[in-house]
């Protein structure tokens, strides 16, 4: 049975003493308004015409994977359409506004410059509304986060004193995003290790090891593998149905909980692990394909400070306050950086992008381009 069906049904049937068919009916009613409800209903309908359990499970899994592929394709298309609007609204429009104001009015109209930025939250919520769910579960202890917070304050204060508040915010975000970046890297690594882990579980159970014994063998053969610490914690609580593993990856946690349910019921079959491994690999392939298709937005974000600076700062000789112009450039760079990061990485805490754009913005701000 596919892993997206297995955990809730194991809880409903094996742990509560009802049949699997009855558990599926209950779950279909619970999820009647979403994709899972449709899958469970198809599962029940297939049973009534004599389709085997394994074939029904495979058909359900294929339906889920097709829906995921469709969602990712739709997201890429919508992101591409929205990116054109963002490019026009937060790059071309400020260039036109500032250029005409400096060329003909010999000054900057603050109201006109701020107006486009007021709708940026709407774009952010629009992106959030149609993007796929993130796999990240980011949690920090206060003592882990405080050093980065102190660094951000320490580097931001001099820029504030010099009259560059936007640059101070950009630099602070670089430091504050770094711990998030470390957690996201760990989550991505755990997700990438999961297919291999499930394949090894299949190999060990095939030759007669129990689930606990298979996990112990994997731990013994691991050196500095990122999954080792989580597997050690997991095997210690393997028989406790109320215990949960809290890694930064939602998918990694979900599959470990599926293994826990399988162990409690004693349902050990290497074919289940093979199917789970194949499912995770398909999800990984789709996610990587989506990231490759969205790389253009990262490239645009990197170019944004260069485009704005070389397009606008040449007019600075007409403006009595070049600091204000640099801050305006910075806030548009920061806005596009956040929105494109949200599109391409599903989160605003994209440390590499924040670092590159911030450093680029700081460097070009020292290049005088007055005519």
Describe the protein in words.
This protein has 371 residues and is an all-alpha fold. Helices cover 76% and strands 0% of the residues. The protein has 15 helices and no strands. It is elongated. The protein starts with 5 loop residues before the first helix and ends in a 7-residue tail after the last helix. The N terminus is likely disordered.
List keywords for this structure.
371 residues; mainly alpha; 15 helices; elongated; disordered N terminus
Structure described in brief:
By secondary structure, this protein is an all-alpha fold.
Instruction: Report the mean per-residue pLDDT as an integer.
Output: 77
> What is the succession of H and E elements?
HHHHHHHHHHHHHHH
Number of extended strands: 0
Indicate the structural class.
Answer: mainly alpha
Shape: elongated
Helices, by number, come to 15
Indicate the percent of residues in helices.
Answer: over 70%
**Strand content bin:** under 5%
- Low-confidence spans: 1-15
Radius of gyration: 26 Å
N-C termini distance: 70 Å
The largest pleated sheet is described as: none
- Oligomeric state, counting identical vs distinct chains: single chain
């Amino acid at each position: 049975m596919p892993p997206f069906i297995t955990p809730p049904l194991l809880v409903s049937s094996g742990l509560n003493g009802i049949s699997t068919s009855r558990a599926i009916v209950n779950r279909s009613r619970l999820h009647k308004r979403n994709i899972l409800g449709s899958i469970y209903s198809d599962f029940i309908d297939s049973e009534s015409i004599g389709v085997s359990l394994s074939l029904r499970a495979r058909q359900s899994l294929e339906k889920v994977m097709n829906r995921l592929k469709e969602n990712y394709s739709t997201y890429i298309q919508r992101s591409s359409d929205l990116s054109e609007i963002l490019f026009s609204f937060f790059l071309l429009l400020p260039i036109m506004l500032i250029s005409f104001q400096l060329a003909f009015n010999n000054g900057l109209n603050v109201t006109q410059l701020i107006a486009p930025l007021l709708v940026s939250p709407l774009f952010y919520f629009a992106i959030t509304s149609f993007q796929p769910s993130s796999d990240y579960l980011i949690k920090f202890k206060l003592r882990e986060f405080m050093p980065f917070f102190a660094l951000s304050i320490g580097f931001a204060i001099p820029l504030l004193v010099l009259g560059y508040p936007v640059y101070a915010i950009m630099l602070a975000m670089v430091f504050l995003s770094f711990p998030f970046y470390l957690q996201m890297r760990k989550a991505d690594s755990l997700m990438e290790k999961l297919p291999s882990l499930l394949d090894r579980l299949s190999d060990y159970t095939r030759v007669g090891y129990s689930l606990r014994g298979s996990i112990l063998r994997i731990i013994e053969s691991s050196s500095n593998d990122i999954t080792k610490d989580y597997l050690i914690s997991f095997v210690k609580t393997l028989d406790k149905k109320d215990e949960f593993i809290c890694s930064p990856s939602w998918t990694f946690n979900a599959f470990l909980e599926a293994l826990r349910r399988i162990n409690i019921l004693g349902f050990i079959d290497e074919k289940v692990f093979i199917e789970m491994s194949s499912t995770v690999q398909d999800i990984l392939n789709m996610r990587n394909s989506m990231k490759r298709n969205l790389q253009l937005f990262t490239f645009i974000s990197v170019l944004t400070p260069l485009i704005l600076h070389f397009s606008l700062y040449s007019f600075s000789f007409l403006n009595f306050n070049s600091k204000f112009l640099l801050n305006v450039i910075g806030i548009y760079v920061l806005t596009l950086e956040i929105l494109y990061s949200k599109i391409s990485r599903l989160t605003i805490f994209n440390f590499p992008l924040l670092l590159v754009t911030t450093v680029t913005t700081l460097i070009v701000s020292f290049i005088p381009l007055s005519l």
